[in-house]
Amino acid sequence: xxxxxxxxxxxxxxxxxxxxxxxxxxxxxxxxxxxxxxxxxxxxxxxxxxxxxxxxxxxxxxxxxxxxxxxxxxxxxxxxxxxxxxxxxxxxxxxx
Length: 96
Description:
Blueprint lengths: L1 H9 L4 H13 L6 H12 L15 H11 L1 H5 L7 H10 L2
């Protein structure tokens, strides 16, 4: 959800707004609540673990960020919005 929340923050008027509308209809909630509600639903199916629960250390987030920016260019350049390295790190920090 961290990526969708970042999409929402950076460009709330684009494609994400139509996604939010559809999700709000499906989840029967307000458009501003879709990611919290979707997060709750998905956690019932498959509980989300923090990166730290997989053994990732806080000081490794810079390495994850660098690897994402350098090796996932197809994903990062063709996404809804393009993330800066700082934004990628913020996403990792939010799920750490």
